[in-house]
Design a protein that fits this description.
The chain is α/β, with parallel strands linked by helices. The protein folds into 2 domains: 11-133, 3-Layer(aba) Sandwich (Rossmann fold); 136-385, P-loop containing nucleotide triphosphate hydrolases (Rossmann fold). Helix content is 44%, strand content 17%. The chain contains 19 helices and 13 strands. The strands form 2 sheets. Strands 8-9-7-10-6-11-12-13 form an 8-stranded mixed beta sheet, sandwiched between helices. The longest helix is centred in the C-terminal third of the chain and has 16 residues, at 281-296. The two termini are 38 Å apart.
Amino acid sequence: MRNIGAHGSATSVALVGLDNEAAGQARELLSAEAAIPPGAIGFADALVALKRQKPDLAIVNFTGTDALALAQAIKRDLPDMVLVALAKKSDAGAILQAMRGGFKEFVVLPEDAARLRQAVREARGGSASEVDEDKGVVVAFAGAKGGVGTSMIAANLAAELAGIHRVLLIDMNLSTGDVGSVLDLPPKDTICDLLAKLERLDERVLGNSVSVHRSKVHALLTPDDPTSVENITADGILHLVATAATAYQYVFIDCGTYFDEAVGVALNVADHVVLITTADVISVRDAFRRIKAWQQLGLDKSRVKVVVNRWSKTSFLQIKDIEQNLGIPVGALVSDEPKTVDQALNEGKLLREVNKKSMVSRDIATLVGMLTDEATEAEEASQTTVVADKQGFFASLFNRG
């Protein structure tokens, strides 16, 4: 998992830019977990002081420009130091800024006291890079548009991995989530139920809230009533995904086509973002727009993996057309076999349960390689494609002409 918190004696903690009230609050909360100096460091002297002290963790008053500039310098000169942003109120835009800037946690006190203590405990005795290796792999799935098969691919791929790994599938398509229908699985607790008890969310609470599929996939589903999603916040999703990445080896997040600030957080902390499209002009154009919007949020295109669903050699757009217009190599192809897919969806079965030997079942199984950096047939095929004229018909569709 990206951009989330690190693993004795007491953890050494520095306070940067905090006023007397905030510094006193932090010292009181962390008296049993940390060694904290009596005063806070000002931003002007912070880098020199932190280089000298080399604390395990620094709690920084998140003011925006000063905090982000300091974080950049710390990433360069003290890459193992864990950074926690302390703010007076929760704000989705500030959370995204902090995550992109290198902060491992964003907390508001006293509401997030438990999370601050947890971050301090995790920072004890290990570098951030060592902790990241202990986190599960987080994969966000998003559809270029509705109906491209995002939930079907996420659920069936989760089942492929669940035989040998602990896998959690979170349905974050909050308006029309289909994971429960694809897996024919009723919710135990929904994502809304879980986030309503955010203050005590840990691995045990998460494990007691998920539904378990016969394939061993654990699933956290959406409620039937879309009006009950009011308690889903960017901060809540950040905490949920961090907890899940500690408890599971793979965390799949089905974002569908839904997009809000909470989904933006999920995309930013994901190790891989799988963008599902079909090989038609409308889908690929929507995929292009989605990638452009993600880049404006700070999501690097190198983390986006494109999967073309319902692929056949007679598809209107070919691989070279899609790659040229998205500016990203196609990572994998999933064959167009409507009979197998329709039967699986209508009966609430996995594709392999309907027809294990089908091309679409085989293609889903090979997607595992895409998430473990193994070569795929689509990548090999893309290397043989010829780049088309960038001023042609497709360029005008994507405002590239």
